[in-house]
Design a protein that fits this description.
By secondary structure, this protein is mostly helical. Helix content is about 50%, strand content about 10%. It has a single domain, classed as Sufe protein. Chain: A (Alpha-Beta Complex). It is built from eight helices and two strands; from the N terminus they run ααββαααααα. It has a two-stranded antiparallel ribbon with strand order 1-2. It comes from Sphingomonas donggukensis.
């Protein structure tokens, strides 16, 4: 999986249209989420598009998230968020500064507010999951 710092460097050099394409490509590269997991319980509230996030615990105790959206760019944003914490220990996820990790992408200025309004809710759900499995 690409490191978020490497991706931020690439993103910085791209024109706005290419940035959208990069986000869409990130979303396409997400591990497929089975439709059976796309339920009301895994739905992230407050997103303009439908977004589902489902955590799994690996044998080594790290968390692995399956996620999907019905909107291509939103799915790319989810992939970007997950890139910061995928397959990490719950304590590491809890300590992650998502805002700092995502800052180089300047999503609030690059995308419409409709596309970014659910990001805090995605992050809150991931943090809550880490807290739940970390205790």
């Amino acid at each position: 999986m690409t490191r978020i710092a490497d991706l931020a460097e690439e993103y910085d050099f791209l024109e706005p249209d290419d940035r959208y394409r990069l986000l869409i490509d990130l979303g396409r590269a997400l591990e497929p989420m089975p439709d059976a997991l796309k339920t009301d319980a895994t739905l992230v509230r407050g997103c303009s598009a439908s977004v589902w996030v489902y955590p799994t615990v690996r044998d080594d105790g790290t968390l692995h998230f399956l996620a999907d959206s019905n909107a291509a760019i939103t799915k790319g944003i989810i992939a970007l968020v997950l890139l910061t914490v995928q397959d990490s220990a719950p304590a590491s996820i809890s300590a992650t500064d998502f805002e700092a990790a995502l800052a180089p992408f300047d999503l609030k200025n690059q995308l419409s507010s409709n596309r970014t309004q659910g990001i805090p809710n995605m992050i809150a759900l991931i943090r809550a999951t880490a807290e739940r499995y970390g205790s």
